[in-house]
């Protein structure tokens, strides 16, 4: 029973480390912008 708890704790800890590593790899700060490029917007011609 003690070995089962140890394996479970190691699996949970490894999963947390994997999640942190994946979040650091996928960095969305440089990709997301809310700025609108007004040069590419064309107003509609008929209303």
Structure description:
Keywords: Signal. Residues 1-22 form the signal peptide. The protein is an all-alpha fold. The protein contains one helix and no strands. It has one helix at residues 2-25. The longest helix has 24 residues, at 2-25. The protein is rod-shaped. The protein starts with a helix and ends in a 22-residue tail after the last helix. The mean pLDDT is 77.
Order of helices and strands: H
What's the helix count? 1
Distance between the termini: 73 Å
* Alpha-beta classification: mainly alpha
Oligomer: single chain
Low-confidence stretches: none
Largest sheet: none
DSSP summary, beta strand count: 0
Shape: rod-shaped
Binned, the helix content reads 40-55%
What is the averaged pLDDT score? 77
Task: Report strand %.
Answer: under 5%
Radius of gyration, Cα only, in angstroms?
24 Å
Q: What's the short story on this structure?
A:
Residues 1-22 form the signal peptide. The protein is 51% helix and 0% strand.
Which key phrases capture this entry?
mainly alpha; 0% strand; single chain; 47 residues
Question: Helix and strand layout, with pairings?
Answer:
Layout: H1 2-25
Signal peptide: 1-22
Keywords: Signal
């Amino acid at each position: 029973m003690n070995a089962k708890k140890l394996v479970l704790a190691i699996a949970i800890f490894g999963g947390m480390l994997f999640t942190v590593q994946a979040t650091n790899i996928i960095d969305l700060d440089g990709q997301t912008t809310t700025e609108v490029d007004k040069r590419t917007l064309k107003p509609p011609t008929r209303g």
